[in-house]
Amino acid sequence: MLKLADHWVWDSWYAIDDDGRHHVFFLRASRALQEEGRRHLRASIGHAVSDDLAKWTLLPDALVFDDAPAWDDQATWTGSVVREDSGRWRMFYTGVSRGDDGRVQRIGSAVSDDLTVWHRLPGPQVEADPRWYEQFTEGSGWHDESCRDPWVYRDPGGDGWHMTYTARVDGPEPARERGVVGHAVSADLETWEVRPPLSRPDALGFGQVEVTQLHQVDGQWLMLFCCGQREAADARRALGESGDNYVVPVELPLTGIDIAKARPFEHESLYAARLHDVDGQTVIIGFRNIEDGEFVGELTDPIPVHWDGERLVRK
């Protein structure tokens, strides 16, 4: 596991270098804050490396908030890492600013030659487009403007790139039904075209579809995401499901997601989980959230999983 004595650890994302080592990037904030609810607006992006996803060597932080004024001068949040055709690595990440009181989320990127030293690029590159996505206003029914947690992957049928991200739409539906999977496309990872969401509001939906990821398990493409029970739609909560991480089977190229078909990966406290492959086995890793009424804030050891045709389950 990855546990820090002086910092909470939560959302994470992964990359594998040319030597086969696993790099984890994760959100961290000092435990000196004492109240864990204060961590979000003080988050930086930490970095560690491992051979087995269980024993980690801590490295210098990858990114911290920028100097003001900037779109990411308050905190840096969850993202993903891809490799450009040139061999250079690119990290997409979320930023919030002091000028917006941390309520408006935007997505930008940074680049690295070695996964260790990162240089942020001018941004942001993706913002909530009011043609399709809700923007923050007082009384909108939600406390922030969602445009975060970018997951970037190459178009399987072409040369371009796709991004899924946490978003929400405006509308008459209750706020806890309006979470959607945001969508943007790019030919070069530099310029992004925001497109309509890949999912729609649903009575069995969620107020936020957080930390999306696409991963193939036992031959089936899955979209993994998370949402706490308090942010789920009333009809979804009434199902009495166990677990805050959800999986939907999908087909590529990705053209739509039926969020009502999401089924939970059952775990007592796992949140913001990621699927990853090690030694030919798919595992799931996330952070330990609330246990016995207290926030834990550490990454789990890898948990082997498989797709049983209907659900993602422990192996």
Concise summary:
The protein is mainly beta and 315 residues long. The protein has one helix and 22 strands.
Characterise this structure:
- This protein is mainly beta and 315 residues long.
- It has a single domain (66-314), classed as Tachylectin-2, Chain A, CATH 2.115.10.
- It has one helix spanning 234-238, and strands at 7-16, 22-30, 44-50, 57-63, 75-83, 89-96, 106-112, 119-120, 147-154, 161-168, 179-186, 193-195, 210-217, 220-226, 245-249, 263-265, 270-278, 281-288, 290-291, 294-295, 303-307, 312-314.
- Strands 1-2-3-4 form a four-stranded antiparallel β-sheet, with no helix packed on it. A four-stranded antiparallel β-sheet has the order 5-6-7-8, with no helix packed on it.
- Strand 11 and strand 12 (193-195) form a beta hairpin.
- The longest helix is centred in the C-terminal third of the chain and has 5 residues, at 234-238.
- The radius of gyration is 18 Å and the shape is globular.
SSE inventory with pairings:
Elements: E1 7-16, E2 22-30, E3 44-50, E4 57-63, E5 75-83, E6 89-96, E7 106-112, E8 119-120, E9 147-154, E10 161-168, E11 179-186, E12 193-195, E13 210-217, E14 220-226, H1 234-238, E15 245-249, E16 263-265, E17 270-278, E18 281-288, E19 290-291, E20 294-295, E21 303-307, E22 312-314
Antiparallel strand pairs: 1-2, 2-3, 3-4, 5-6, 6-7, 7-8, 9-10, 10-11, 11-12, 13-14, 14-15, 15-16, 17-18, 18-21, 19-20, 21-22
